[in-house]
Design goal:
By secondary structure, the chain is of the alpha+beta class. The protein has four helices and eight strands. It has an eight-stranded antiparallel sheet. It is globular. The N terminus is likely disordered.
Length: 232
């Protein structure tokens, strides 16, 4: 009787072991497939991230991508000399891009500084030479009171964009600060600073003879911008 029970139990155990083995094999196959899919997914994400980084670093018109880092503008003024400005794309990217584009197109060549006030600033870049002209295109004002985190200040040697009463009306006109004018901070977009030629700014401002309190310079006496050259 005991032998018969033992044989019956052995007959039951064998199929159970076979089923268990099949389950284990299936589980191993599923585990392998899952890990392969996981690895492929991670690899795909990593590749996509690398492509995204590559696209971001190559840029599409950004000045730092074009110049490899710092960007400078050499402003040559007839009979006075050269003013070199370091442009700050990080603080005012839209403004810098606009200025660089106009300069590279030769837009500023032959234009003038039509408004000069000693101890304050010298303003130019108007094709009409009156303060009423522009490039035909306006840009957003990148300054604090227009919602932009531009912390650059209107200290001596700052270059900033001129505009009308509208915050987003800047076009081609810019001004270089002769002496600290911090009252302009937050309302105008500074986009760089003079690094060389501040003595040229002094000479232009000191020689100016405006005909009114607004700093208007007669057309025949307006200092001429020979060229503005962009370089790294």
């Amino acid at each position: 009787m005991a032998k018969q029970l033992k044989k019956q139990n052995e007959k039951k155990i064998v199929p159970m072991l076979a089923v268990l083995a099949v389950v284990l094999v299936v589980a191993c196959i599923v585990f392998v497939i899952y890990n392969r899919q996981k690895d492929n997914g991670s690899s795909g994400q990593q590749k996509a991230g690398q492509e995204s980084d590559k696209d971001a670093s190559s840029g599409s018109g950004g000045t730092q991508a074009d110049t490899g880092g710092k960007c400078y503008a050499d402003i040559d003024i007839k009979d006075y000399g050269k003013i070199t400005v370091e442009l700050d794309e990080k603080s005012a990217p839209i403004t810098v891009k606009n200025f660089v584009s106009l300069a590279k197109d030769g837009f500023y060549n032959g234009l003038t500084f039509h408004r000069i006030i000693e101890g304050f600033m010298m303003q130019g870049g108007d094709p009409q030479g009156t303060g009423l002209g522009g490039s035909g295109k306006t840009i957003i004002g990148e300054f604090a009171n227009n919602g932009y985190d531009n912390k650059l200040s209107h200290t001596r040697g700052a270059i900033s964009m001129a505009r009308s009463n509208s915050n987003n009306s800047a076009s081609s006109q810019f001004f270089i600060v002769h002496q600290d004018s911090l009252f302009l901070d937050g309302d105008y977009a500074v986009f760089g600073y003079v690094t060389e030629g501040i003595e040229v700014v002094d000479a232009v401002c000191q020689a100016a003879q405006p005909v009114d309190d607004n700093g208007t310079i007669p057309p025949e006496a307006q200092p001429v911008i020979t060229s503005i050259t962009i370089r790294s």
